[in-house]
Design a protein that fits this description.
By secondary structure, the protein is of the alpha+beta class. It has 4 helices and 22 strands. The protein folds into 5 domains: 56 residues; 89 residues, conserved putative lor/sdh protein from methanococcus maripaludis s2 fold, CATH 2.40.420; 98 residues, Efflux pump adaptor protein, beta barrel domain (Elongation Factor Tu (Ef-tu), domain 3, Beta Barrel), CATH 2.40.30.170; 54 residues, Beta Barrel (OB fold (Dihydrolipoamide Acetyltransferase, E2P)); 76 residues, Orthogonal Bundle (Helix Hairpins). Strands 1, 16, 17, 18, 21 and 22 form a 6-stranded mixed beta sheet that branches. Strands 2-11-14-13-12-15 form a 6-stranded antiparallel beta barrel. Strands 3-10-8-5 form a 4-stranded antiparallel beta sheet, with no helix packed on it.
């Protein structure tokens, strides 16, 4: 009986022992799984970090174009759109009526002042001259006879042989005939002048345009069109406009009687056509555009400028001596203002704040933040960050030219 109780007790304890061992085993398995997961996770992160570092280390350098900042004189220009305007444009018209007998000039010819351009039939005016000269000869004879009679009357009046009234009448006749002689002389001079007007000459030097009347036509002094238009080409002027804000700077130089150079460029502002000087400024500002007109004069010795041609005029108003100059494409703008990417010796870039002065065309002057000789990124800066590795694929001097 005791043995059966003992066996029953043993059978009752076996499940409890088994149950406790099962929990221990489950706990051990869980701990092992957690440890394995932690080890794998740590290893993965380490591997990722290592891979990232390796990827960062082997990242390719960014190709850029770098330009060296230089120290040079920097010219400051004011640019305005203008038109070539001749100093003189003359429509050659007729001074007398008659038939156009001969046209001597060629269309487009360069003529000098006084050159013969055409002839009008002079014969009617030659006849008028002959009549005036004949009338004057007749009146001269009458005047001579009247003066002789006056001398006789004066002698007789002294002898008290003629009344004073007769003497006075003879004196009046002499003065009348003298006036007639002056009138006759005027008729002669008028006829001679008409003959001069039959020869049409160039009133100015310049280029003649297209002929407006053909040879053989009857022309009149009242004709509106005239014979031809002559335009003076040398010298020639350019009238252009600048903003009113730039006027004080220009007037201060003009009032000092300084000669301000003006350069004329084509429409695209690429080809320089001619160089002249500023002549004067207009006397009022256009309120609709806020601009003022300036006039510059050019020698135009090679006829580079043509009347009514549109040009870009560049007025030199200042010269910054020994300025630090870089391409304008190197100037970057951010929330903190303007800056440049400077290429350091280890081929990385530095974001350098820079104070920019004037910008002219493709060049800019830098007031502070950059020294001559430093390399700045002129192309490819859009992909750069502070400390970026770069590869300079092209390096050149600045585009500014001395005397530009």
């Amino acid at each position: 009986m005791e043995e059966e109780k003992k066996n029953a007790t043993i059978k009752h304890k076996i499940p409890a022992i088994f149950f406790r061992r099962w929990w221990v085993l489950l706990l051990a398995v869980c701990l092992l799984a957690v440890g394995t997961y932690a080890i794998l996770t740590f290893a993965g992160k380490a591997q990722s970090r290592k891979t990232g570092q390796e990827g960062k280390a082997v990242a390719p350098a960014i190709s850029v174009v770098a330009v060296q900042a230089i120290k040079t004189d920097f010219n400051v220009y004011i640019t305005g759109l203008g038109a070539v305007t001749p100093l003189n444009t003359v429509t050659v018209k007729y001074r007398v009526d008659g038939q156009l007998m001969e046209v001597i000039f060629r269309e487009g010819q360069i003529v000098n002042k006084g050159d013969l351009l055409a002839r009008i039939d002079p014969r009617p005016f030659e006849v008028q001259l002959l009549q005036a000269e004949g009338q004057m000869a007749r009146d001269l004879a009458l005047l001579k006879n009247a003066r002789l009679d006056l001398q006789r009357y004066q002698e007789l009046w002294k002898q008290d042989s003629v009344p004073k009234q007769q003497l006075d009448t003879q004196e009046a006749l002499v003065r009348q005939l003298e006036g007639t002689i002056k009138t006759d002389q005027g008729q002669i001079d008028s006829a001679k002048l008409q003959l001069v007007y039959c020869r049409i000459t160039a009133p100015i030097s310049g280029r003649v345009g297209l002929r407006l009347v053909d040879q053989g036509n009857i022309v009149h002094a009242s004709d509106a069109n005239g014979l031809v238009v002559i335009t003076q080409l040398q010298p020639i002027t350019v009238i252009f406009s600048i903003p009113e804000d730039s006027l004080p700077q220009v007037l201060s130089r003009l009032n000092k009687r300084e000669h301000l150079p003006v350069e004329a460029y084509d429409r695209e502002l690429k080809q320089k056509l001619a160089v002249g000087t500023l002549l004067t400024a207009d006397n009022q500002i256009d309120p609709t555009t806020g601009t003022i007109r300036l006039k510059a004069i050019f020698p135009n010795e090679k006829n580079e400028l043509f009347p009514n041609q549109f040009v870009n005029a560049r007025l030199l108003v200042a010269v910054r001596r020994e300025a630090t100059v870089i391409p304008s494409s190197a100037i970057q703008r951010g929330p903190q203002g303007t800056f440049v990417y400077v290429v350091k010796s280890d081929m990385t870039v530095e974001m350098r704040p820079a104070s920019v002065g004037e910008i002219q065309g493709g060049d800019a002057s830098v007031k502070t933040g950059l020294s001559p000789g430093e390399l700045v990124v002129a192309d490819g800066a859009d992909r750069l960050r502070e400390g970026s590795k770069v590869e300079v694929k092209a390096q050149s001097g600045n585009s500014v030219q001395k005397g530009y």
